């Protein structure tokens, strides 16, 4: 959303004369906007080897004289974009044209991607490295919240699950480096096991974008992608550090890479630790987080036509869950609502993580190979393995605190072959087949009847996407069919306990068609319609028993049908003379047989007291809304932005609102941008306002307690860069919840027990070499 | 080169398809549910001698499945009884006595006796290592013609909070492990 910038450089150079070895070589260059070819003023161009640089003039031109022949690293930066390094070998006088794609100048949509990875008619939003550097401490779910139309469903500060246009969990596909994340997505308190710092770019496709990908999402797709290894033969890297005053969080991330002649490699590692967070009034006891992540990538160009890539990533976390949010029955829950501060609140800060807590490990190995058949066609083969371990520890009796109350291990194997073909007359075809196998096992160490059964799923899918550019139009059509066979082995909840076996077979299909019309540089529109189905998940079919976390008894229904959805998205983007940009996205999704938890009239008596009963039921439902983004460049220095998102959803038959939909919100930002201030570059000061409306559509009997009031948050951010010889340092300072407001958020389950975080000062430091 | 590539594709396809674990999910192991409490039994023995009165809540299949069975008993008016409470896990055979676990972690547990209707006086007669009541043993005086008694077992209550050691649950906090209501008849 804010300052989301991607700088994306294409280089063309031309040799004018040759007098090497004399150290009198010159680079003449021009920096232009890739979109409208307009010159970009105040771009900073720095040559590391010379320890000197220059700034482009009003015509975008720059000149660097007195260079010897040899290898150089050029650092190109512009306000609102992430700084990029360019490596080149200089042998003669050279003229450069540097094309910069940078979006903070009022261009915020589509076409940031290199190939037609995602459809062009889809609404796409991107978070680039620059913005990620401004929020180093955030989890994936929290990082994505800055996009209009995207929110996060949370359980406290440590667990955030992204929600796009009201859908999350099994209805939303998250792709980690092109592979659908495979884990316990059904749980509302299970965050995606991905470290955003291992990625350089996060993309949200808001339409029905899952055509190309396995997984039965009903709509949007989130792509988390690391950048390709830079084509530079020297060792480069960056180190990032952050500090959060609230929770005394510290974290460090280091990335190293080198494009060796015979092998390119990249490694990345993250360490994070934070303790108890603080509301304006009290500590949130037991909300510490520890995380250590690692990734490594090898890339090999075997022949000019054949390349191979190996990627491994490991995500490991331990998350404390607010001690006061652990309740035994409805009486406890009622007492928690009425209490001024959560039970078990300690008066001192601590880094300790005690029960209740979650321990999660996720490993991904991806091996891929690409072969160019011709200039227009290539095939790609991918194999991926994921291992997901989740252990949840509860408050238990009789010294059983070290035994997890939930222990699940999931292994998945994925294989795909894709074929791309570009026809001469702007036709583009993409097709492929995919196989996936998921083996989900309860590790028998809990001494508790498992919440979800063991199962083995085998999926086979195939897809076809055809795109065509025609004058100002981009047309696209895609379809996907997927067969799923699932075998389930569960344990009865009657005594004597016995084993029950079930077989589920489903056929899922997805189709999407879209059109993009770019009338001129001032106006464009996108329309996309998508049809998708999603089969019921194991928890929806076989849950049975007390879900203590939600103080209710959940009952699955083995007769549930697949959900079928149609989503329409329509967006208009307009911009005037680089001054004003506005975009509105309207969406409507109709879901037939929407699966949801319906509160039943009766209470069930257990030894812990009476509990409400919730059953998985189906109804026809709709979700609709709009995302509105506008930016106004007041003058060269001042930029202002305003985002608004509105969402509503209900059951069609009786108009009852769907639960767990985000509240409407308005976000605004005002930025002062200075390309150069004394020895600092790209200085940016920002003031952020966020207002979240009260969720008024939920009726009394839909929740244990009414949704919280609306709230306003004020934030500030400052960032600047400085070049020291061959090292570039980027600094970020920020304040969140500056007014120390006391508030609760509807999508945070912790709202039953505690307030949200109070004021937080953040520091971020990025060192690149 | 192309043929070499083809071999790689085939090898990978075979690798992805091979069924090394068979085509069945892992057979679940039926857990030893040793933590479950299926039965609460409150036994009142008259101080004057005579047969003990038994109040029992029994839910043999745990939280789901069949409804629990609650059985009460009839007391004599104005008699003092010695009360003892037992928690059992009858999923195990022989039944597991959870009372021992509660006693062993006496400082982390407390049983509360709430008279929701009627007039009964219940007094703690036991202590944990800190001198606070646990509530496994009590005295019970019947002063009315009948009523209801709610028995609550709390894990990790704040025993030092106002009124808690006297049996008032209001400020106790902690988590409820048991909450059952017994009808009490008095003649």
Residues in helices of chain B, as a percent range:
10-25%
Shape of chain A: globular
- Helical run tally of chain B: 2
What is the total tally of β strands of chain B? 11
Task: Give the end-to-end Cα distance of chain A, rounded to a whole number of Å.
Answer: 28 Å
What is the CATH first-level class name of the domain at 221-234 and 306-328 and 350-665 and 696-707 in chain A?
A: Mainly Beta
Supply the CATH architecture of the domain at 221-234 and 306-328 and 350-665 and 696-707 in chain A.
Beta Barrel
Termini separation of chain B: 97 Å
Strand % of chain B is: 35-45%
Largest sheet report of chain A? 22 strands, antiparallel, barrel
User: Hey, which two chains have the biggest interface?
Assistant: A-B, 63 and 56 residues
Q: What kind of sheet is the major sheet of chain B?
A: 7 strands, antiparallel
Average pLDDT confidence of chain A is 86
From the helix content, strand content and strand pairing of chain A, which structural class follows?
mainly beta
Oligomer: heterodimer
Indicate how many domains the architecture of chain B comprises.
1
Strand content of chain A: over 45%
Low-confidence stretches of chain A are 1-20, 103-120
Question: What is the ordering of alpha helices and beta strands of chain B?
Answer: HEEEEEEHEEEEE
């Amino acid at each position: 959303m804010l300052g989301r910038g991607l700088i994306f450089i294409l280089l063309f150079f031309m040799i004018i004369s040759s007098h090497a070895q004399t150290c009198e070589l010159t680079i003449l260059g021009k920096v232009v906007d890739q979109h409208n070819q307009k010159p970009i003023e105040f771009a900073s161009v720095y040559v590391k080897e010379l320890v000197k640089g220059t700034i482009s003039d009003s015509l975008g031109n720059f000149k660097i004289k007195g260079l010897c022949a040899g290898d150089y690293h050029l650092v190109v930066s512009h306000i609102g974009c992430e700084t990029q390094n360019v490596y080149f070998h200089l042998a003669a006088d050279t003229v450069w044209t540097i094309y910069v794609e940078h979006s903070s100048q009022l261009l915020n949509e589509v076409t940031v991607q290199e190939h037609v990875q995602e459809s062009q008619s889809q609404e796409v939003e991107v978070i680039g490295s620059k913005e990620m550097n401004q929020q180093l401490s955030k989890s994936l779910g929290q990082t994505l919240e800055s996009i209009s139309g995207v929110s996060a469903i949370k359980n406290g500060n440590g667990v955030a699950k992204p929600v796009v246009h009201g859908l999350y969990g099994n209805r939303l596909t998250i792709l980690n480096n092109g592979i659908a994340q495979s884990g316990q997505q059904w749980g509302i308190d299970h965050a995606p096991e991905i470290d955003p710092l291992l990625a350089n770019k996060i993309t949200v496709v808001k339409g029905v974008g899952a055509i190309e990908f396995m997984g039965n999402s009903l709509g949007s797709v989130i792509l988390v992608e690391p950048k390709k290894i830079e084509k530079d033969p020297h060792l480069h890297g960056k180190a990032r550090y952050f500090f959060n005053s609230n929770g005394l969080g510290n974290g460090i991330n280091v990335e190293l890479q080198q494009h060796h002649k015979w092998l390119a490699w990249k490694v990345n590692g993250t360490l994070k630790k934070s303790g108890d967070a603080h509301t304006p009034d009290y500590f949130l006891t037991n909300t510490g987080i520890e995380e250590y992540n690692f990734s490594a990538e090898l890339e090999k160009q075997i022949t000019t036509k054949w390349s191979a890539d190996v990627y491994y990533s490991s995500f490991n976390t331990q998350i404390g869950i607010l001690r006061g949010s652990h309740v035994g029955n409805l009486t406890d829950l009622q007492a928690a609502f009425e209490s001024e501060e959560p039970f078990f609140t300690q008066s001192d800060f601590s880094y300790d993580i005690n029960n209740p807590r979650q321990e999660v490990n996720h490993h991904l190995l991806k091996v891929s190979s690409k072969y160019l058949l011709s200039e227009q066609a290539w095939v790609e083969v991918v194999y991926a393995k994921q291992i997901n371990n989740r252990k949840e520890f509860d408050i238990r009796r009789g010294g059983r605190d070290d035994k997890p109350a939930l222990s699940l291990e999931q292994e998945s194997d994925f294989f795909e072959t894709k074929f791309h073909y570009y026809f001469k007359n702007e036709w583009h075809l993409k097709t492929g087949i995919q196989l996936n196998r998921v083996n989900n096992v309860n590790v028998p160490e809990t001494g508790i009847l498992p919440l979800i059964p063991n199962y083995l799923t085998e999926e086979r899918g195939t897809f076809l996407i055809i795109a065509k550019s025609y004058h100002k139009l981009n047309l696209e059509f895609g379809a996907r069919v997927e067969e799923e066979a699932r075998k389930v082995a569960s344990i009865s909840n009657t005594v004597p306990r016995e084993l029950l076996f079930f077989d589920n077979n489903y056929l899922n299909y997805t189709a999407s068609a879209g059109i993009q019309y770019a009338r001129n540089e001032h106006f464009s529109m996108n329309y996309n319609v998508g049809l998708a189905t999603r089969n019921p998940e194991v928890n929806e079919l076989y849950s049975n028993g007390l879900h203590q976390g939600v103080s209710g008894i959940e009952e699955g229904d083995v007769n549930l049908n697949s959900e079928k959805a149609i989503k329409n998205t329509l967006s208009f983007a307009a911009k005037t003379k680089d001054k004003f940009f506005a975009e509105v996205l309207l969406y409507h999704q109709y879901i037939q047989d929407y699966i949801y938890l319906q509160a039943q009239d009766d209470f069930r008596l257990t030894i812990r007291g009476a509990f409400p009963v919730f059953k998985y039921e189906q109804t026809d439902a709709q979700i609709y809304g709009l995302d509105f983004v506008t930016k106004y460049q007041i003058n060269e220095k001042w930029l202002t932005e305003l985002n608004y998102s509105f969402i509503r959803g209900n059951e069609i038959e009786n108009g009852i609102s769907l639960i767990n939909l985000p509240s409407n919100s308005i976000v605004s930002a005002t930025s002062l941008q200075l390309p150069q201030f004394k020895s600092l570059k790209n200085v940016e000061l920002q003031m952020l306002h966020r207002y979240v409306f009260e969720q008024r559509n939920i009726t009394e009997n839909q929740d244990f307690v009414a949704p919280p009031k609306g709230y306003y948050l004020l934030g500030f951010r400052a960032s600047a860069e400085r070049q020291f010889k061959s090292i570039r340092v980027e600094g970020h300072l920020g304040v969140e919840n500056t007014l120390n407001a006391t508030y609760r958020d509807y999508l945070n389950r912790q709202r039953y027990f505690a307030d949200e975080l109070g004021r937080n000062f953040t520091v971020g430091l990025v060192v690149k070499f | 080169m192309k043929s070499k590539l083809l071999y790689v594709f085939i090898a990978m396809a075979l690798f992805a398809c091979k069924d090394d674990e068979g085509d069945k999910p892992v057979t679940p192991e039926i857990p030893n549910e040793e933590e479950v409490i299926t039965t609460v039994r409150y036994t009142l023995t008259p101080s004057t001698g005579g047969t003990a009165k038994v109040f029992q809540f029994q839910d043999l299949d745990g939280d789901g499945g069949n409804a629990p069975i609650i059985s009460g008993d009839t007391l004599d008016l104005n008699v003092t009884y010695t009360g003892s409470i037992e928690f059992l896990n009858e999923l195990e055979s022989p039944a597991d006595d959870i009372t021992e676990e509660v006693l062993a972690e006496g400082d982390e547990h407390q049983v509360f006796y709430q008279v929701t209707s009627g007039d009964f006086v219940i007094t703690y007669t036991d202590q944990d290592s800190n001198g606070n009541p646990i509530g496994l043993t009590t005295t019970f005086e019947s002063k009315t013609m009948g009523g209801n008694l709610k028995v609550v077992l709390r894990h990790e209550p704040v025993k030092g909070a106002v009124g808690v050691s006297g049996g008032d649950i209001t400020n106790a906090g902690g988590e409820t492990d048991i909450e059952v209501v017994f009808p009490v008849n008095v003649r």
